[in-house]
Amino acid sequence: MKTTVNALTLRKKFGEIIDMASISGNSVIIERMQKPIAVLVSYQDYLRVFTNASERRHREEGYQLLQEVRVEYGKKKESSNDSTTIIRAMRNNRAKQVIKGDK
How confident is the model at residue 6 (pLDDT cuts 50, 70, 90)? Predict the structure, then answer.
């Protein structure tokens, strides 16, 4: 549940409003001249929202770096030469050699 307070009320009832955000988990929208200027949230909500965003951003940076390495070393994003295809081709070539008598 979101609660809206103006800046003057926030100054007068700061402790009460902090308790509202931290204990009950309610977000408090702070307004000045009837325009929202800030939001007060519990510490748990802050960690949940911003820590996840930071981790997501870190993963995205890692993925981007991996793509750059793949391009630098000539590996395509999606390779048709997966290990199964390579092994199958090697076996087929070996079978052809055995049939021909080439060892």
Answer: very high
Q: Are residues 34 and 61 in the same domain?
A: no
Please tell me the distance from the alpha carbon of residue 46 to that of residue 28, in angstroms, as a whole number. 13
- The two beta strands, 35-40 and 27-32, are antiparallel
Closest CA to 30 of 46, 14, 8, 7: 7
Domain carrying residue 29: 2-41
> Which pair of tokens denotes residue 33?
């001249």
The per-residue pLDDT for range 62-95, each reduced to its tens digit, is 888 888 877 777 655 555 567 788 888 888 888 8
Q: How far apart are CA 5 and CA 12, in angstroms?
A: 11
Do 34 and 7 have their domain in common? yes
* Cα 4 to Cα 65: distance, rounded to the nearest angstrom: 43
